[in-house]
Structures are given as C-alpha cells and as structure tokens.
Give the backbone structure.
Amino acid sequence: MSEKMRESLSALLDNEANEIELQRVLKQVEGDEELRLTWARYNIARDALSGHQLSSLNVDISARVRD
C-alpha cells in the first residue's frame, strides 16, 4: 500500500478527507485486503486512544505473529 493511500485512510478516519481521497479509498478498498485490514487497525487505534471499550474486539493476529 502506498504512502498516499495511508494518508488518505488517515484523513478519512479523522473526517478530514476531501472528495478525491474518499473516491481513492472507495475505489481500491473492495479488492485490497491489506487496505481493509489497515482501515480496521486504524479504527481500533482511534477507539483505544479515545478511551472506548475494546472488549468485543475480533481481530486475528495469528498470521502476523507467525510471520
């Protein structure tokens, strides 16, 4: 995933994305598993930093641990 896509995801998460960034993410997200997983991680991090309860977290980290 490119740095530009990471920046677009971050902007989208912070409600700072412009129309171009939104369209870029929407266009690529369907066929990009890495992008979907990154979006999930960014949301988890945001929730944790905001003090939200993470007890119902459903994340499988086994592949990354294995690697």
Observations:
- The mean pLDDT is 81.
- The helical segments are 3-13, 19-29, 33-49, 62-66.
- The CA atoms of residues 2 and 35 lie 10 Å apart.
- The two ends are 18 Å apart (CA to CA).
